[in-house]
């Protein structure tokens, strides 16, 4: 018998062997190489609100430069509790039910590691946000894909029941969704609630785009649906609301026992989110309602500009209900893959997008690319001028 050679110790661990750098990062590099306009990665390079900036500067000057409590600075948890009651209809105790995290990403990582065990099944609707899938895989979870069909992306009870089995412990909901822009309705959430109650499932939501929604739509936080009461971990973030993606601030809201477990894991990995930035962001929630309305209106205008340009190029857009991404149908380019289509658009227009394959496990994404319009209007307008002039 051949001797079994030991695996070299000087090698990445098996648990990262399935992981590759996402095409989103690769497109950013390719875009930089040709000096293109990057509508690929959701970078969100808009100016931050003065209130938030001044709050952080004052916190640094005021000496708030040491670790915060692991569950987050009290000022921020109190501001979050007030905001949850005002804007989401969620009543949460800031001392036991709110955990401030290193971005919504830190909250999701803490949730999958603290609340689920390796081998557990987790339902992930597709098109998905790659971080949800990859963090679940890294935690040893088994993804169970719930395919939502474009362009409506409707979630039905029957489709959900068809993917849930005895191993399923949790469902991920992203509303408004990256990449589809889909916002889940009360009926869809109640359908999830019926399945979750019957199967005793945890529901982990990602609502980071809650304030970015269009055509007068209301954002419905899944935790407010009676059918889901008591089984939701609500994840929200400040990156998109205050255009501070580099500050790394988010939070989770969960029943006390779950919040405690998430705090333990988050403390272990990150200790805490940056303290002065937490205090600065707390000031942001006191912004007048018009700030949040203006944010949505600004993105709605940009959504219109991009949809018109894509339509002119024959790349039929799937106009989103919320968030700031737009999927477009690139079948007319006759490329063999979405990656080839994205590279062609970059080469011929100097505008970067993300191949649809980044959001689907199978072929369904190959006819789509995603554009992000979280850009200053002049940059977006130039990108749209180039797209509109594209004659494939
Ligand atoms: N969740 C979704 C759905 C996102 O699209 C993003 C960023 O693109 C994040 C989370 C990242 O959030 P954060 O910056 O708070 O970690």
> For this structure, what is the CATH class of the largest domain?
Alpha Beta
Looking at the structure, the CATH topology of the largest domain is Aspartate Aminotransferase, domain 2
Described by the principal axes of the CA atoms, the overall outline is globular
What characterizes the major β-sheet?
7 strands, mixed
Rounded mean pLDDT is 94
Describe the structure.
- This protein is of the alpha/beta class and 392 residues long.
- The protein has 2 domains: 15-47 and 290-387, Aspartate Aminotransferase, domain 1; 50-284, Aspartate Aminotransferase, domain 2, CATH 3.40.640.
- Helix content is 39%, strand content 14%.
- The protein has 12 helices and 13 strands.
- It has helices at 23-33, 50-61, 74-88, 103-115, 130-138, 157-163, 186-199, 256-270, 275-284, 289-312, 338-349, 377-388; strands at 37-38, 98-101, 121-126, 142-147, 168-174, 202-206, 232-237, 250-253, 317-318, 325-329, 351-352, 354-355, 368-372.
- The protein has a 7-stranded mixed sheet, sandwiched between helices. A 4-stranded antiparallel sheet has the order 9-10-13-12. A two-stranded parallel ribbon has the order 1-11.
- The longest helix has 24 residues, at 289-312.
- It is globular.
- The model has no long low-confidence stretch (mean pLDDT 94).
- Bound molecules: pyridoxal-5'-phosphate.
